[in-house]
Amino acid sequence: MTITKINYFFFLGHKWAIKGYSWIFPMENKILKVGAGKTHIKSKDQEKTNQTTKKITEKIIDEYLKAKEYKIIDKHGGIIRYSIGLKDKFYHNKVVAVGDAVSAINPRGGEGIRYAMQTAELASKYICKYITTGENNFDEYQKKWRRKKLLKWKLSEYSGRRMYSRYTDIQVENRLQFFHKNFSTEDMIQSLFNFKYNKIFARVFQYGFLKLSFLFKKEKF
Ligand SMILES: Cc1cc2nc3c(=O)[nH]c(=O)nc-3n(C[C@H](O)[C@H](O)[C@H](O)COP(=O)(O)OP(=O)(O)OC[C@H]3O[C@@H](n4cnc5c(N)ncnc54)[C@H](O)[C@@H]3O)c2cc1C
Predict the structure, then answer these.
(1) Which of 51, 99, 119, 143 is most buried per CB count within 10 Å?
(2) Centroid of ligand 1 to alpha carbon of 86 (angstroms)
(3) Long-range contacts of 164-171 (CB under 8 A, 24+ apart)
């Protein structure tokens, strides 16, 4: 399935991604960024695949964009290492870690630039304190960050793991159809990238409650 936000396209499901998601982002005039992100979540029943992020990206260009004549102007990629439950070392021997080094990356969406900047902003307060007073309070930096983010990160990890490695294509399609019917694209983007689950939770609970009360009524009569 694809979700479109203005001109951003996200691809989910096993046809279009390997335990992750793929994308098309507009860059400049007539320039598109096409890519695929793969997670390395292990599952018991995992199938062997000969798909690679390169092949998936080529498939999007051929089958989805149906582009016949195009020029590739840049290729890049990388690996992000992520510690489940934010268990990284934030400080050791006068080295302060920020950004990817402390898993400041949305585990479901793979977005890390603004969280890298947020960790840098927080760390800079403790670095300033250390330089001006000699007071080493970097444990507090780690505690503050974890206090602020751990719950959101855990929810994001959980839903990413389900979406990317447990669901079949049909389940992905059904869930997205449900979200598509009940939420705006903006709500979905807010939950995927901004950890704003309020509307999603409220509607899912509402739906669950209606389903329960329907079952209860059926039982009674
Ligand atoms: C393919 C891909 C696409 C992405 N797309 C997005 C996106 O669209 N939006 C988004 O928000 N995030 C995206 N991310 C994630 C984002 O790039 C990172 O979360 C972000 O760059 C983290 O910033 P950082 O400063 O922690 O690390 P980095 O940007 O990796 O910077 C670390 C720097 O340290 C240097 N370095 C490493 N070791 C040493 C050493 N020993 N000595 C000196 N220098 C060293 C590296 O060369 C590098 O320049 C993407 C990541 C990848 C791999």
Answers:
(1) 119
(2) 17
(3) 164/17, 164/19, 164/20, 164/21, 164/39, 164/41, 165/19, 165/39, 165/41, 165/42, 165/43, 165/46, 166/43, 168/14, 169/13, 169/14, 169/15
Residues within 6 Å of ligand 1 by CB: 77-78, 80, 99-101, 105, 111-113, 116
pLDDT number for residue 109 = 85
Q: Which atom of ligand 1 is nearest to the CA of 113?
A: 11
The pair of structure tokens assigned to 106 is 């949305």
Which of 5, 90, 111 should be mutated for ligand 1, with most atoms under 8 A from CB?
111
Tokens coding 39 = 């997670």
Q: How many angstroms does the Cα of residue 62 sit away from the middle of ligand 1? A: 29
pLDDT tens for 24-65 read: 999 988 899 999 998 887 665 556 677 889 999 999 999 999
Ligand 1 centre to CA of 100 (Å) is: 7
CA proximity to 3, closest of 151, 162, 192? 192
| Distance between CA atoms of residues 119 and 123, nearest Å | 6
